[in-house]
Amino acid sequence: MEWIEEFKGLGLKNRLENRRVLASIFVALSGLLLYLDKVFLLLNIEGSNTFGFSNYSNFIWAFTQSIAPVIMIIGFQFKPYLLSFLIPIYCYAVQIVWIFQPQFYFDEIYLQIYAIGSCLSFLLLMYLIKKIALWHNHQTTLKKEFQQEAQEILHILKAKTVSEN
Hints:
By secondary structure, this protein is mainly alpha-helical. The protein is built from 6 helices and no strands. The chain has one domain (2-164). 78% of the residues lie in helices and 0% in strands.
């Protein structure tokens, strides 16, 4: 377990960085797993037990569709880089098209435009959410400052009123 000792020897910043990289790999893997059935077809890997599915490829596809979100959630717990989510978003966007239009092939331009558009929409949504959160935090800070200043003014006025009486 030499790598564990190396990991322990790293500084906190490096450990957090390594954790984020590992988390990003989990998130990316959750998207790439969706194509495992295609990889098995290319490599002529065929299992004998289809667990009730019509063929082994369909079983692998259904299994990876089920396990991929779990892997993504595990990765999410370790704060992956936001850009790592583009891989599963792209892969899921292509999967959605294939579910409703199985005659489309991966190299069709409309499929790529849709998948890339989904990724760009995700980035825009994340940008807007971040801006709204920053605006909300700024408004909260302003309210707290106003309340603090109002309390200070009230204390000054109370002190003046008491000293005048």
